[in-house]
Amino acid sequence: MFRTLRSPGVMAITLAAAGILMMTAGIRMTNGLFLSPINSSTGLGIVSLSLAMAIGQFVWGAVQPLAGALADRHGARPVLLGGVSLMAVATAATPFMTSAFGISVMLGVLSAAGAGAASFSVLMGAVAQRMPAESRGEASGFINAGSSIGQFVFAPVAQKLIQLMGWMGAMWALAALALLALPLVHKVTANTKAAQVNTEPDLGLRQTLRDAFKTPSYGLIHAGFFTCGFHIAFLVTHLPGEVDLCGLPPEVASWSLAIIGLANIAGSLLVGSAVSQYRSKMILALMYASRAALLLWYLWMPKTDLTFYLFAAGLGLTWLATVPPTAALVGKLFGIRYMGTLFGMTLLSHQIGGFLGAWLGGLAITQQGDYTWMWYADIALAVAAALLNLPIKEAPVRQTAAA
Q: 36, 240 in Cβ contact below 8 A?
């Protein structure tokens, strides 16, 4: 493992990108911990607050292709700096909002937009253009692990901050911590020359997008990634509520989220290394199938602390480890010239699923009193995603068309 990242320059860029994602993704993943405290403080209702967080899931994804296109055209540096700054300011302003609309704007739109602009599509596109092809798979796994480290660190930290300072003070503290990502932006974007000459023909963004949306495999990638977003957003937003329904203390939820992040570090690094050795579509099919099996196991087990921790560890192995093989598939099909835009479109599909996972979870608990039908929907989607990845063709689109 890491045999292709031994160059100091390659490793430095990868570590800096992972650090940025650790801050932006780690802080964003704590939103579900604020759901109950904000509701208790403001009385705005679980459905309204779930909708605000669902909007955040969608906006985070909707920003990805736009941010990727801006980075492809103007460079990643201004996009990353603007994204981190916007996230910090909007997070700090959220406690001043007294209505569901205000919280939706700050937490659901502006903070999510900032986090999205400093996330996967821009970071992976920038890194891919600054290192040789053989390093990209492991680099994407390492960068992805940064988001998991952030989740592992920030979930218990945010829970403790809420207990010590209240949800408002915790929000202000997280906003200040987000600014620590700013110094890392220069390291990611300092080298403007690719480590390897790019011989891919530049067909222009418009023609590349036409090719992409005419390619059935690109649509199948989107469909599978939609399920990943549904699954993750539902759990990040509503796992604290599920823990509460089971009569367990809130610390079980925060530690479960932390364990997911810790396990995903191993999962991301392992999958990132496997991308260069095995077919990405088979890796994805196996991961989605394993999620379906794990969800069934959870439903059958007694709801104890240990069950949640084991469930979290199993989930963590594939949590966001789907990102490296998904990004690899996009790169194989269309090259890296417009990687930021094309992978950003894929992340938008992920977050449409995320919007539905967060919002429908809120409706389920309000109308049904539990999350039972959400769990079964999650299982069905995981099985479908595993099957949809199997027909994907991994050959470059232009090369296939020429043949």
A: yes
